[in-house]
Specification:
The chain is 62% helix and 2% strand. It has 596 residues and is mostly helical. Helix 4 packs parallel to helix 12 (269-298), helix 13 (321-329) packs antiparallel against helix 14 (332-370) and helix 16 runs parallel beside helix 18 (490-514).
Length: 596
């Protein structure tokens, strides 16, 4: 077994750098929020709500720009059947951040929520919040597992060491500094992570471009040299699939706790919007070197390289095209610097997902659903335990299951078709209730699962218009199998059906109960009748009709926090007067109760 000492040293240096920054951030901010009376658990989840533009811009960009983003973009540009036309992540996620900033960041931040699930529990109740936690948790865990899985593959290219050991060490480092510092450690390591990616890749690109084995990428973009042009194209029969996938990235990229964690940690609602727009620009900038590396891979005569005559695609290593290009087309000192930086960045990407999952569990499941009287110290310990548990779960899945990418594809689809329409309803549609929410959940789930998932060998039971069958070689067994390919944009249709189902069933339930068609005693979810009475108001609605927002089952409000939350969490010195006044007007009382 060959061990590349330089590669190991490069990785060790970058890993230690990120570990040091994570611990330093935790130490620097250990007393953050104490002066304002903010609970320690809330500080771990959303910082002291004082993340500024510089750190905030970097950490918001790192919501999506990590190991999976840069490796995946390079892979799609390189793949002969896809090319740049199918590398949708850079524009899809950039637009996702723009849409999130325009429409979702302000209402979420100005109402003083702590996690993405708070508005659901406030309006639909703790049981519905628990149901919506399931796809949100799956998305975060499988995303972390996919990142760690990719890391093992990347490290195997750099240094011939045990993949399992490298994944475990990487996960332990990320878990350790997240345990110690919470969001502050995640945010500050994100700054280092993006610098690592940016420097590591941009130092490598010129060397790879000028390698004698690489043809002019402007020529290979439009002409076939070693493979079909890397510019790519979208066949007419694939148009709806392309649109479906783009909508999934653009809209499905919004309802993630990793995004709202950054939004809710901003020092004001206006800052949250600005950070989203900065991050959208950052997403596009960070994709450029990945696109170039994918193009370089498609323009290389691999016979002239140390890699050998068989191309990465023929060896089924297209997903590792970025580390392969750095390893075989750059001088050793450049490739080790680039690969060390990328590996450290991949490792650092897993931390925010693990923190997001533990934040939702500790607050929305443990505290608000089961232990309303839990002390702040107890919540902090629950968070620490779940960070370790969820981190361990993601690591085990990365090591033992070969279908981690398929699981992530499916769970990210469920976030899109289930959580996005519910978020849309809870923030912008008056009158939706728990009955509509349950119906919407079932609609989205059945319609998406019904379409099947070829990667998981999950056969469809709903055959949408235009479906075809294809023969494919299974990525694990190597056997040829027939799979059903859905050419219909069924993911977006499922999302729209879920949204319309929520609205329709909410108003139907409201009409049936209010008109007396169904007796009030059958309102077993307390979603319609009880909301019209201050005496029997459901605990998950507003505590008062005034300006105090109290989230479901929350521990008694301490006097120091009894002022309007939006005001308590806004650094007024950073805002012009008009913005503060505007926030106070739009702030805390949810629009759902205005009509009542």
């Amino acid at each position: 077994m060959t061990i590349h000492v330089e590669g190991l040293v490069a990785i060790a240096v970058f890993y230690l750098l990120i570990l040091f920054v994570g611990i330093w951030a935790a130490w620097k901010n250990k007393h953050s929020g104490e002066a304002e009376g903010t609970d320690r658990s809330e500080t771990i989840m959303v910082g002291g709500r004082d993340i500024g533009l510089f750190v905030g811009g970097f950490t918001m960009t790192a919501t999506w720009v990590g190991g999976g983003y840069i490796n995946g973009t390079a892979e799609y540009v390189y793949l002969p059947d896809y090319g740049l036309a199918w590398a949708q992540a850079p524009f899809g996620y950039a637009l996702s951040l723009v849409v999130g900033g325009l429409f979702f960041a302000k209402p979420m931040r100005s109402r003083g929520y702590v996690t993405m699930l708070d508005p659901f529990q406030q309006l639909y109740g703790k049981r519905m919040g628990g149901l919506l936690f399931i796809p949100a948790l799956m998305g975060e865990i499988f995303w972390s597992a996919a990142i760690l899985s990719a890391l093992g593959a990347t490290l195997s290219v750099i240094v011939d060491i045990n993949i399992k050991m490298s994944v475990v060490i990487s996960a332990l480092i990320a878990i350790f500094y997240t345990l110690v510092g919470g969001l502050y450690s995640v945010a500050y390591t994100d700054v280092v992570q993006l610098f690592c990616i940016f420097l590591g890749l941009w130092i490598s690109v010129p060397f790879a471009l000028t390698n004698p084995a690489v043809s002019d990428i402007t020529v290979t973009a439009v002409k076939q040299v070693y493979q079909s042009p890397w510019r790519g194209s979208v066949q007419r029969s694939d148009t709806w699939v392309w649109i479906d996938n783009f909508c999934l990235l653009m809209l499905g990229g919004i309802p993630w706790q990793v995004y709202f964690q950054r939004v809710l940690s901003a020092s004001s609602a206006t800052y949250a919007q600005v950070l989203s727009f900065l991050a959208a620009f950052g997403c596009l900038v960070m994709a450029v070197p990945s696109v170039l590396i994918g193009a370089i891979g498609a323009s290389t005569d691999w016979n002239q390289t140390s890699y050998g005559g068989i191309s990465p695609q023929e060896r089924e290593q297209a997903d590792m095209i970025l580390p392969i290009v750095l390893q075989h087309l750059c001088p050793p000192f450049v490739s080790f610097f680039g690969l060390g930086a990328v590996s450290a960045a991949v490792m650092s990407s897993a931390d925010s997902s693990i923190l997001s999952a533990s934040s939702m569990f500790a607050r929305n499941i443990y505290q608000l659903a089961f232990r309303q009287s839990a002390s702040d110290r107890e919540i902090v310990w629950v968070m620490r335990i779940t960070i370790f548990v969820f981190g361990g779960l993601a690591t085990v899945m990365a090591l033992v299951t070969g279908t981690v990418y398929g699981l992530w594809y499916l769970s990210s689809d469920l976030v899109y078709v289930i959580i996005f329409p519910q978020l849309l309803s809870v923030l912008f549609v008056k009158g939706t209730n728990t009955y509509g929410s349950v119906a919407a959940y079932l609609f989205g789930l059945v319609l998406r699962i019904g379409g099947g998932e070829p990667y998981l060998q999950l056969p469809p039971f709903i055959y949408y218009p235009g479906w075809i069958t294809e023969q494919r070689i299974h990525h694990m067994t190597g056997e040829v199998e027939e799979v059903v390919i859905q050419k219909f944009p069924f993911k977006t249709v499922s999302m729209l059906a879920s949204f319309l189902g929520n609205v329709a069933f909410s108003y139907l339930a409201k009409y049936l109960f209010e008109s007396g068609k169904i007796s009030h005693k059958y309102d077993f979810l307390d979603a319609v009748v009880s909301k019209h009475s201050g005496e029997i108001m459901d605990k998950t609605t507003l505590v008062t009709r005034g300006n105090n927002i109290g989230l479901s089952e929350m521990a008694p409000v301490k006097p120091r926090l009894s002022v309007t939350l939006a005001a308590a969490f806004t650094r007024r010195d950073t805002l012009p007067t008009e913005t503060v006044e505007e926030e106070e007007e739009s702030s805390p009382d949810s629009s759902h109760h205005d009509e009542e």
